[in-house]
Every structure is written in structure tokens, then in C-alpha cells.
Amino acid sequence: MNTLDIPRLTQYDILPAALINQFPWPENDYRPRAEARAAWTPDALHFWLTAWEAEPLTRFFEHQSPVYTDSCLEFFLNACPDAGRRYLNFEFNSAGSLLLYIGDSRYSRKSLKPAELGRLKIRAGQQLDDEPRWQIACVVPLDLLEDHFGHLAWGPGLVMAGNFYKCGDQTAQPHCACWNPITASKPDFHRPEDFGRLILT
User: Fold this and answer.
1) Is 183 left (phi over 0), alpha (psi -120 to 50) or beta?
2) CATH of domain 18-200
3) Does residue 46 register a pLDDT over 90?
4) Which residue ranges make up each domain of the chain?
5) 190 half-sphere exposure, CB direction, 13 A CA radius
6) Is there a contact between 109 and 179 (Cβ–Cβ < 8 Å)?
7) Nearest CA among 116, 88, 114 for reference residue 101
8) What does the pLDDT look like over 56-93, one tens digit per residue?
9) What share of the chain is helix, strand, coil (3-state, %, to 5)?
């Protein structure tokens, strides 16, 4: 099981990177570089998802669209694994369009309300230099997490669970990548039993 230490936010470029470099179900030779970083502040969880792709497929521009069929970066989070398997699935395309549900499996999920989505701070960007890439930055308020997971002992020592993903179901080169290894024989990101550990430090 992989572990990512999530420090208090001070400076982005010193945050540890979680490499999204496991390809458990290869369909082709496409292996885009991707990574995630995360940090916390007293009132929020911050995360950044980056994929080194020059021309990401981007067709959806509204929240709660099937962005996983575009070039997509994802973060699945269970903020309180001791209380159960429920997790939030944050799924983004390069426009910053978000698909976000909560539940304990692929088949028992509930959409978050528009007002809840409005409490998130999302920024999308693309850089076309020597290493073309696109990035999502997201700030998740602590009170939104506690609305869904109950009171959290927010601060150093808190152990959460989650996984980071890169996919693109309908891109020219379909692919599925993850940070923590997945044991399923067929493509399936909705596996809380395969989440890694996320520890606030």
C-alpha cells in the first residue's frame, strides 16, 4: 500500500508528489506522465493534479458531465476510513469541469448538490512549453468534508484513504493509470479496498 504524506501548505514546489504511474489494464503503449500533490490548511484540503499531455480531449464544460470519457484526472477520497467505505470521487477534465459523487461503491453513489459544488475552488490551466501539460487545482473546505464524513481530527496525524487516477475512456489512446495499485482484473477505479494512505503531517 502506498502512503502519501500531506503537509501543511507552505510552498507548492516542496510538496511530495504521488506519481500516477501504475497501468494495471494496458490497452496500448500510451503512458502519459501524471502526478498529484496535496496539502492542508486549518480550514481546507488543497490538491493539484497534473498530466503531461499536449492536446487533452476536452468536450464537456459543465459540472456533473461524464468527464472520464475526456482526458481526465481524478482523486477519490475517504476522509474517515475508520467510519466506513464512503468516498468522494473528484473527476476533472482539462477545462475544470467536475464530476463529483459520494458513496461506498460504484453502484451506490449520490450526486453532490450544485450548492456544494459551488463551495469548491477549482482552477484549471494549461502550459505549452517544452513539457506541455495541464493542471487542476482544487480547494475543498473542511466543513464540506465534515458534512459528509462527520467531525474530523483535522491536523497532523489524521489518516485518510484515497487514490489518484489518470484516464481517458474515449480518447484516441484509451488509458487507465493509478497511484496505488489496483487488484481488479478489469478496469475499475471504484475500489476503496485498493486505496492508499493519506496522512496529514
Assistant:
1) alpha
2) 2.60.40.1190
3) yes
4) 18-200
5) 15
6) no
7) 88
8) 999 999 999 999 999 999 999 999 999 999 999 999 99
9) 10, 40, 50
Residue (of 168, 147, 90) closest to 124 by Cα position:
90
Q: Name residue 163's amino acid.
A: N
Residue for cell digits 487533452? 56
Grid coordinates belonging to 196: 492508499
- The residue type at 197: R
Q: pTM of the prediction?
A: 0.96
Q: Return the residue matching grid coordinates 496500448.
A: 28
Angle 93-94-97 from CA coordinates, rounded to 5°: 50
Residue with cell 467510519: 83
Instruction: Supply angle C-alpha 14, 180, 78, rounded to 5.
Output: 85
Residues in contact with 129: Cβ distance below 8 Å, sequence separation at least 6, in sequence order = none
